[in-house]
Amino acid sequence: MKHLCTWLLFALLVTPASAQNFDKAVAATSRGDYVAALQEWRLLAAEGHKLAQRNLGELYLAGLGVERNYLEAALWYRRAADQGDPNAQQKLGLMYRAGLGVPRNYTEAAAWYRGAAEQGAAQAQYDLGRMYAQGQGVPKDFGEAAKWARLSADQGLATAQFTLGRLYADGVGVPQDIDEAANWYHRAADQGHTKAQTKLGALYVKGSGVPQDLVTAYMWFDIAATQGSPNAGSGREFVAARLSDDQTSKARSLVQAWIERHSN
Q: How far is CA 218 from each of CA 179, 232, 244, 246, 249, rounded to the nearest angstrom?
């Protein structure tokens, strides 16, 4: 689980006993013994350590080492969030947005997302931008949506990069700029985002924001189709009918090279 084994807040564990419990919790988590990890995180969480509180929330949310319990997950996320932990704040925002363990409340969700977003949490920045785009818990404001999507995208979150690409493609919240759209689609596509790969393939077919290149279009469509995108499959068939044998061979070589580059 992401963030579960981080040493970021080790400095908060001020007693030797706490340090030992922390070591045990990390070791148990690393070997997949979530029952033991739960016990150790619980001891630390009871002492007020926010990393342990957040990790306890993670275990309850995922049902690892314990039966899944959204109420308990929300309780421990809130304790960590109240101490300023950005990852716990983002998760608490998610729970308020979905109504998991707490009543659904978009205003609360947006507030917790904002707390994490202002600390630089990329996922929370994306989530807050989405709230602005949909007018949930905050006034609908596509300018704010684009602002938060960009902050998240700049940190490398593929979903935010794809979203920012769509905003530029449609001229929503930002001036319409197909070159910028292609740029952000490319960044997301290179991280394996199938919708971005499909959009990028379409741009290469049209020569919109990128040079027209059916070989490269085939490459992106094929990569996305292999991951299950039906639209990409249709795009690949469209392009394949227009390629020579040599072009098809080159396109398949590009696909294989991309796969090998991203499997390391």
A: 20, 9, 12, 13, 11
Using CA atoms of 254, 257, 261, 264 in order, give the dihedral in degrees to the nearest 10: 150
Own/partner contacts of 107-114, CB < 8 Å, gap of 24 or more, are 107/137, 107/138, 108/137, 109/136, 109/137, 110/136, 110/137, 110/138, 111/137, 112/81, 113/89
Q: How far apart are CA 173 and CA 150, in angstroms?
A: 11
Domains along the chain with CATH numbers: 165-264 (1.25.40.10)
Residue 206 burial class via C-beta count within 10 angstroms: exposed 0-12, middle 13-18, buried 19 and up: exposed
pLDDT digits (tens, 9 = 90+) for 53-80: 999 999 999 999 999 999 999 999 999 9
Per-residue pLDDT tens for 98-151? 999 999 999 999 999 999 999 999 999 999 999 999 999 999 999 999 999 999
Over 60: is that where the pLDDT of 220 sits?
yes
